[in-house]
Amino acid sequence: MATAAAGLLGLLWGWLWSERFWLPQNVSWADLEGPGDGYGYPRAQHIFSVFPVAAGIFSVRLLFERFIAKPCALHVGIEDSGPYQAQPNAILEKVFISITKYPDKKRLEGLSKQLDWDVRKIQCWFRHRRNQDKPPTLTKFCESMWRFTFYLCIFCYGIRFLWLSPWFWDIRQCWHGYPFQPLSRGLYYYYIMELAFYWSLMFSQFTDIKRKDFLIMFMHHLVTIGLITFSYINNMVRVGTLIMCLHDASDFLLEAAKLANYAKYQRLCDTLFVIFSAVFMLMIPFCQFNFSILFYFCQ
User: Fold this and answer.
1) What confidence tens digit (pLDDT) does each residue in 126-146 have?
2) CA separation for the pair 169, 240 (Å, rounded)
3) For the Homeobox domain, which residue ranges apply (predicted)?
4) From the CB of residue 52, how many other CB atoms can be counted at a distance below 10 Å?
5) What pLDDT, in 10s, does the model give residues 284-293?
6) Apex CA 31: angle with CA 30 and CA 36, to 5°?
7) Do you find a cis peptide bond into 182, omega within 30 degrees of 0?
């Protein structure tokens, strides 16, 4: 049984990393084992350095939210208090948890007779109890401010790095000499930090506020990690840096719009969201153009 499982895993691994699929003709993975220049070529073992970096990023986040984001939230008028607490009542709590959070008229009348409360008072209790489960705005502000800060910082780093890179000014350079494109120190740091950040989001999603789009965001982080990892291992890092930088530009604008919304700066929120939408739409033709060039060079 163990031998069969190992053989199946070997076939799957061989299919996943098929040289015919990932690399141009007459190029093998062994060709990328050479020294190259600087940091050599990207290798799969480099990915393991991501996990301690991700743990460090998560630790920095905890300090940032407590000592920087929270004071900023209080400064813009976001209260450090949760929603109104519902009056403790065992019967209503049992109905709320086990039966319904939105009792109908018949159930309200039955509870009114049982507790000797007015129907209006019971309705208020359920409303307060529902609000009690909603995450406080202060927590949402701190989470968004952390993401905004990281996306802005990594975007600035990306622009500074790409400004001196030839493929920033001529996109065709992304595929010039592919896959024999040496890995520089700046490119290595850029990729590792991006990948580590998304791994930290993957971990922290289980401790952050549980939102309705939890599963969608989990799949988003998983796909993003997969794309960054695969593009690194098969040395598509040049085009990868351009796409990551463009994504970061739209992401920090989106988080900025959320911050403005939490702080009730509605006009600023609307303006930032319009700019975010425009930047996000730019990514579609850019990605299509790069994939068409990739297809051309891999013929």
Assistant:
1) 777 777 767 788 888 999 999
2) 15
3) 92-136
4) 10
5) 666 555 555 4
6) 120
7) no
Lookup: tokens for 94: 């049992």
- Name the residue among 216, 236, 248, 209 with its Cα closest to residue 290: 236
Whether the Cβ atoms of residue 191 and residue 228 lie closer than 8 Å to each other: yes
**R_g of the chain, CA atoms, integer Å:** 26
Report all structural domains of the chain as residue ranges with CATH numbers, in order of start: 36-77+135-297 (no CATH), 90-132 (1.10.10.60)
Contacts of 114-123 with CB under 8 Å at 24 or more apart are 115/89, 115/91, 122/92
The pair of structure tokens assigned to 184 is 């520089």
Q: How many CB atoms lie within 10 A of CB 282?
A: 12
CA distance 108 to 121: 10
CA–CA–CA angle 32, 34, 35 (5° rounding): 125
Entry pTM? 0.80
